Amino acid sequence: MDQKALTLRLPAEQAEALEKVAEIDAVSVTEAIREAIDEHIAKRVADEEFQHRLKDSMDRHQRILDRLAKA
């Protein structure tokens, strides 16, 4: 699996809470963050309003790509 390193800055209180949650769940902080991100993405994908905005964005980008292909 390809991976990309990211830097994440959190307030100290939030970082400490995350560390404790990960410890209690017996996972690494990295795994806890990955799980949270997966859940967030799944919620967004299931959201109807998000899907409308996604389609609008895809349409705009497709029009730009079509113009560039004709250049």
Task: List key phrases describing it.
71 residues, mainly alpha, 3 helices, elongated
Summarize the structure.
The protein has 71 residues and is an all-alpha fold.
Explain what the structure shows:
The protein is an all-alpha fold and 71 residues long. The protein has one domain. It has three helices and no strands. The radius of gyration is 18 Å and the shape is elongated.
Structural class: mainly alpha
As for the number of domains, it is 1
Morphology call: elongated
Distance between termini?
36 Å
Low-confidence stretches: none
Q: Number of helical runs?
A: 3
Please summarize the sheet with the most strands: none
Record field, number of beta strands: 0
Compute the CA-based radius of gyration.
18 Å
What does the secondary structure layout of this molecule look like, with pairings?
Layout: H1 12-25, H2 29-46, H3 48-70
